[in-house]
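quick one: magnesium ion bound model?
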Amino acid sequence: MSAAFVMMTGYGVSPGLACAPLVRMTPPVVTDPDEEPGADPGHEVQRIRQALTDVAAQLTVIATGGTAGAILEAVAAMAGDPALVRAAADHIGKGMATAHSLSLAIDEYCAQLEETGGYMAERAADLRDIRNRAVALLLDVPLPGIPRPGHPFILAAEDLSPADTAQLAEGDVVGLLTERGGPTGHTAILARSLGLPAVVGCPQAATLPHGTLVLLDGWAGAVEPHPSAQRRQQAVEAALVRTQPRATGPGHTADQHAVTLLSNIGTLADAARAAQADNEGVGLFRTEFLFLSRREPPTLEEQIQAYSQVFTAFEDRPVTVRTLDAGSDKPLPFLHLPREDNPALGIRGLRTATLCPGIVETQLQALVTAQRRTGARMRVMAPMVSTAEEAAEFAALARSCGVQTVGIMIEVPSAALGADRVLQHVDFVSIGTNDLSQYTLAADRTSHTLGHLLDPWQHALLTLVARVCRAAAVLSRPVGVCGEAAADPLLALVLAGLGVSSLSMAAPAVAAVRDALAQFTLVQCRSLADAVLDAPGPAAARDTARQMSDAFRTTAHDREGL
Ligand code: PEP
Ligand code: MG
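yep, here:
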C-alpha cells in the first residue's frame, strides 16, 4: 500500500542522494519520579560519580579524531564536572531515586544554560546527551544513540549530538534527516566532513514513521517518503550525472579561468584525509582543536609538532592557517575571559589577542618555525577582524614574527564595507560566510529557527561579497571564500562570477564544485552573479541561478550536437 506523496523540505546541508528506510535514534529513557530511592545515599552518590566517569571515558574513546573529536573531548570534560555530582547528591538527600536525581540535576543546569542563550544554550544539548548516557548506565538499559539495524538506513532524529555524529562513520547510516538544526550548525559541518547526504531543519520529519522508505536529496534539501520505483530510478540517474566527477585537478571555469579549490581542516585527522584528496591545498586550517578543552595553552614545541605534521601532509600545496579563533562559541578556560551578556559580540577571534597577547605571538612563532622546518607554502590569517587598524596591527605582528603571506578573514560587515582600507595592509582576504551571515542579518548562527536568514543566498551577504571582490580587484589581491557557502556548487558559480578567486570547503565537497565550475565560462558565471544580485530574495536568487545554468547547459549541448 502506498501513502500519499508528500514532499518535505529542509536545508540541504550536505550534498548527495540517499534512498533507504528511515530509522529513528534509540530514544533516551525517561526517569520515574516515583521510583524507590536506594537504601544507602552515599553509595548512590558514588554510583552517579561512577556513571559520569564512565560516560566521560566513553566519549573520550569515541573522540578518536576528525572534526567531531575536538567537540567530543570538550563534552567529555563536561561529564567530569564534579558540580554535576554535587547537584544530583542534593536530590538524593531529598529522598529521590538515583537516576531521577541525576536527571533533575542536569535538567536544572540545562535550564540555566538555555537562559544564557547563544553558545551556552547549544551546550545544553551536550549536557542532555551526557544525562541520557549516564541514566542508561544507572538503570542498566541500552544506551541511547545510533541504532544498528543491520542494513543501510537514513538516520532520523530531532537533532544530533556531537557524540552521535562521531559514530556515524562506522555504521550503516547513508543519510541524515533532522527536525532541527541550520545550515551552519555542528550536524551540517560534520555531515559534510563525512560526505553523508543530509537535510536538517525539517520539522515535518517528525511525522514519518520508523521504517518509512525515504528518498533524501542533500542538494535540494528535499525528502520524499514512499518514492515510486520510477522516482527512485530518476533520482539515481540524476545523482549519477551530478556525482560522476568529470574534471580533476585544479579548479577552473570552462574557459580556463582559475578558481582555486581548497579544503577546510580542523584536526590532524582531517588534515590526513584531506591531504589524500584531489584539492589544491588548505584554505582554512581551524587551529582551535589544539586549544579546546585544555586548562593550559599548548606549548610552543607542541604547536610546532602539530603544524609541522599538517604542513608535511600537504607537501608543496599551500596551507592557509587561521590563528586561534577563541571566545563566544569556542570558550577557552585558560583565557579567563570576562563573563559577557552577548559573547558573539564580545571578546572573540582576534579580539582575544588584546587581552592575552602572548597566545597569538607564541602561535605565530610556532607556525613560522614549523614552516621553516618543513619548507611549507604557508599563509596565515586572523579571524574576526573589524577594522583596517586591526588588520594593520595583525599584519605588523605576523610579519615581525616572520610570516611572509598575511591575510585576514572577512566575517564582520564593517570589514566587508571597509575592504578597500583593510586590503591595503594584507596580502589576501578570505570571506567567512558563516559569521558574515550571522552579523549581517543579525541572526545567531547557532539558532534552530533562523536558518532562512543564515541562507548564503541572502542578498545582503552576496552584496558584501561583491563589494569585497571589487575592492580586491582594484588592488589585485586574491579573495577566497571559506565559509559553508563555498561548498554549494551552484553558488560557487555565482561567487566565481563575483570575482572570488578561491573556494575552500570540506574535502568531500570539492569534486562537485569543480565539476560545476568546469561547465560554465567566466562570462556565464558573471551573468549569473548579476542576475542573482537583482533577485528579490534567496529563493528567487537560487531559482534564477538554476534556470540560467540549465539554459546555458542546454545551449552548450545543442551546439555540441550541431
Ligand atoms: C566562517 O565564519 O565562515 C568561518 C569559516 O569560520 P568558523 O565557521 O570557524 O567561525
Ligand atoms: Mg567564523
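The chain has a mean pLDDT of 88.
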